[in-house]
Structures are given as C-alpha cells and as structure tokens.
C-alpha cells in the first residue's frame, strides 16, 4: 500500500516536470508566486552546472577517472573494449569552458525565445514556466555536444567572450548589492520607527561600521602585501583611486540635498558598496602576472615574501582554487539567489534590472479542493520581470563562473597552459569604477532631473 502511495506521489510530481505550467497545477511545488518558482528553478540549473564544473576541476580528478576500466584513453583497459574518452578534455579548464559554454547557450536560447513576453497568457510563457524535464534534457544535450567541440581556437576565443560577459555581470552584481542594501536599510528604519525600538538603528550602525572597518583593513593589507617600494605602481594607483572614490560616495550619500531627495539613502549602502569595491580591487590584483606584486595567499600567511620574492611558477601549473575565487563564488551564489526572489521597491534599480514592483498577489498560494496550496499565477496582467533579461543575466553568470573557476587565466593553445593576464586586471578595475559611477548616479540623478520621478 505504501509503495502504491509513493508511486502516486511520484507520478504527481512528474507532472511538475513535464506539465505546461507545473507550479500552477501541481501540489508538490512550492506555495509561492509562479514567477518566483520559475526563477528559482532556472537558477538551480545554473547552480547544478556550477557544481559539475567544480567537481571536474578538483585536483586529482583525471587520475581517478583513469582508474575506471575501459573509460579513459591511456587508462585502465578491459580486454576487448577500446577506451574512447579523452579524460584530459573532460577535466580541468577545458571541462569548465565547455560546461559554461553549454549553460550560456542554453540561457541564450531562452533569451531569444522569450523576447517581448508581456504576460502569462502569451503561449511562450508556458514554455518559460513549465516543461522542466525537457529543459533539463536540452541542457544535457547541449553539454554533451560541447565536449565534442575540437580544441583549435575554441578556448582562446571563448576566453574573450568570458571577459566581456564577466565585466557586465560584475556590474549587475553591484546593482543587486545596491538594491539589497537599499531594501535592508528601508526595512530596518521602518521597523525602528514603527516599534520605537532603537535596536534596529543600533543594528544598522553596527553593520555600517563593520563594513567600513573591513574595507579599511583591506586597504591596509593591500598596501602591505600587494605593493613594493620600487614596483607595483599599478596596484598603488588602483588602491588609492578606489579609496578616494569610496570616500567620495560615502560623503555624497549623506549630503543634506541627497537626503532630502532620497531619504532612504545613507552610509549602509555606501559602506557595502565600498566593501564590494575593495573585493573587486583585490580580485583584480590577484590576476597580475607579476608574481612580485601578486603573492600567493600561502606566502602571505607564512610571511615568505618578506625574505625572498616568490619564484615564478611553472607556466603549466594552474592554481585553480584561491581565496578570491572562493569569495567570488559566495557573492555569486548570494546574488543569484537574491535575483530569483527579489521584489524591490527601488524604482531606479527596477528599471535597470527590468523588473516591476509587486503590489498585487501576496504570493501565499491558492488552496485547492484537496486542501493543498498551489503557486499563484501573478503574471496574468503583466510579467513581474523581463524573461529575456533574466536569461541574459544567467547567461552572463555562466561566463562569470567560467572565469572565476579558471582564475581568469588565459588558455594558451600551444603549450596547453593557463596564464594570468593584465587584461583581466583592467576589466575588473574598470568594472569597479563604472559600478561606483553608477551608484553615484543613483544618488545625484534626482537632483539633476528634478522633474522625473525617482521615488
């Protein structure tokens, strides 16, 4: 009896994966708005691809695969079976490039399909909000095909796609952080005013001080470990400029005219942006090919660089994992999840991110005759986010993951090595400057254009 009930339950959930609008008709899906569920599932596809990329880049993975009988060329064989798989292709940076290429193509496909979808009554909205099993098969099919792409110039060309896409994605991350800080500040201030509890203000002050303390500490550490008295001029300029820019946006955010035009702007947002800017600065400096200006984290911890500069590593050796890459993945995961569930009231950010403020459905679900809550179609009149822009965001996220997991190293097709490059440094620094300029614009725009609604 229990087995029969389990099969019925699985059959019910199967309709979630194969149905045309799964989260509207299936009780096994979350009780929330249909638009939120869709974004979460697409984000799950992205995270699944990221996990596969991480697994295939783990140290020793190729050695382990070669132990599988009859699998890798040159590995353990089985009598009568010819090994067909080139394991050096499905591990390391080649696997990351191909996996992320597949994800980027997958999301680009849906970007094109979903152009100008206005509401859930559009037939294409059914494709957006359902058929998850078939979407998964499409992603798997593209991924398998990507591993058959000849080496040639693929990696060198796709590297530049990754650089451009990552540049744009870093800006999107900054926009999401601005929106998060804005919503955070607004909610806590409103709670403090409604409850007359000063603890909310104390919390805001504590986090603001913490952000600035971390950012200032980072600046000090950068000057100590990433500069030299007679070298590393670029690093000195980068650190100094970003320190000055962060000071400027902090001062501007609390000017009386700015506060009058935007009451919810303040030091919390500026402190978070300053901390993120210092992270991007650090990330850029770790891509400098000059090892004298870019010591490894191990040498910093052990103070090895204080007695003797680190020797240049073997160009064929790739350090896949480092601290800035791990921090980058954490920020990426946060921004991806936040982009999937956000319902912002910031008009400027909504316009940039192509989303709408949700004022209708509460998203608590509709109770059916069987007593099960089902997801609400909250887009019958108008979509709450641009389907195409969301897929564009995930496409860029795929490229950013590719660059992060490979440490922004440029593949050399002649030596099969990976090398740090100065273009990666400049891309990150320019994105940090453009992001700071964008945040500054959100502060002063209401003053420059007083006739426009920036509420």
Kindly list the characteristics that best describe this protein.
disordered N terminus; two-stranded antiparallel ribbon; mainly alpha; about 450 residues
Description:
By secondary structure, the protein is mostly helical. It has helices at residues 2-18, 22-25, 34-56, 61-66, 92-113, 123-129, 132-146, 154-195, 199-225, 233-253, 256-261, 267-285, 297-302, 323-341, 347-353, 387-405, 422-448, and strands at residues 366-367, 373-374, 410-412, 417-419. Strand 3 and strand 4 (417-419) form a beta hairpin. The model is unreliable at 1-15, 20-30, 304-318 and 358-363 (pLDDT under 50).
Radius of gyration: 25 Å
Given the helix and strand composition, which structural class is it? mainly alpha
Largest sheet, if any?
A: 2 strands, antiparallel
Distance between the termini: 59 Å
Count of separate DSSP helical elements: 17
Tell me, what's the shape? globular
The strand line-up of the biggest sheet is: 1-2
Helix-strand pattern, N to C?
HHHHHHHHHHHHHHHEEHEEH
Instruction: List unreliable stretches of 5+ residues.
Output: 1-15, 20-30, 304-318, 358-363
- Strand count: 4
Helix content: 55-70%
Q: Mean pLDDT score, rounded?
A: 75
């Amino acid at each position: 009896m229990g087995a029969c009930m389990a099969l019925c339950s699985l059959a019910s959930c199967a309709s979630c994966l194969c149905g045309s609008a799964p989260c509207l008709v299936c009780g096994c899906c979350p009780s929330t708005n249909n638009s939120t569920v869709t974004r979460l599932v697409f984000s799950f596809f992205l995270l699944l691809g990221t996990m596969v990329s991480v697994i295939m880049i783990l140290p020793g993975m190729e050695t382990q695969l070669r132990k599988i009988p009859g699998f890798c060329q040159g590995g353990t064989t089985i009598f009568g079976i010819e090994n067909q798989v080139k394991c050096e292709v499905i591990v390391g940076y080649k696997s990351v490039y191909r996996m992320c290429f597949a994800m980027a193509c997958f999301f680009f496909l849906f970007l094109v399909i979903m152009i100008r979808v206005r509401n859930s009554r559009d037939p294409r909205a059914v494709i957006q909000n359902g058929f998850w099993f078939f979407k998964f098969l499409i992603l798997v099919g593209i991924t398998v095909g990507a591993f058959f792409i000849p080496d040639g110039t693929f990696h060198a060309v796709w590297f530049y796609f990754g650089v451009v896409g990552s540049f744009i994605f870093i800006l999107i991350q900054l926009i999401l952080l601005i929106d998060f800080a804005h919503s955070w500040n607004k909610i806590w201030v409103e709670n403090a005013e409604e409850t007359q509890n000063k603890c909310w203000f104390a919390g805001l002050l504590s986090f603001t001080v913490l952000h600035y303390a971390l950012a200032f500490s980072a600046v000090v550490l950068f000057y100590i470990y990433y500069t030299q008295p007679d070298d590393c001029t670029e690093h000195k300029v980068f650190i100094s400029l970003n320190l000055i820019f962060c000071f400027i946006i902090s001062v501007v955010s609390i000017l009386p005219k700015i506060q009058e035009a935007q009451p919810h702007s303040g030091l919390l947002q500026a402190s978070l942006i300053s901390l993120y800017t210092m992270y991007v600065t650090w990330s850029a400096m770790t891509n400098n090919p000059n090892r004298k200006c870019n010591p490894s984290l191990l040498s910093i911890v052990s103070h090895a660089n204080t007695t003797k500069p680190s020797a240049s590593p073997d160009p064929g050796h790739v350090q896949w994992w480092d601290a800035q890459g791990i921090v980058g993945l954490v920020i990426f995961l946060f921004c991806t999840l936040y982009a999937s569930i956000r319902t912002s009231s910031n008009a400027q950010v909504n316009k940039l991110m192509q989303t709408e403020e949700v004022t209708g459905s509460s998203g608590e679900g509709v109770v059916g005759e069987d007593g099960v809550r089902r997801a609400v179609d909250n887009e019958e009149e108008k979509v709450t986010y641009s389907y195409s822009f969301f897929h564009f965001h995930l496409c860029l996220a795929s490229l950013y993951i590719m660059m992060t997991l490979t440490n922004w190293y440029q593949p050399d097709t002649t030596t099969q090595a990976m090398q740090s490059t100065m273009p990666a440094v400049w891309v990150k620094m320019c994105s940090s400057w453009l992001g700071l300029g964008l945040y500054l614009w959100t502060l002063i725009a209401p003053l420059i254009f007083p006739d426009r609604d920036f509420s």
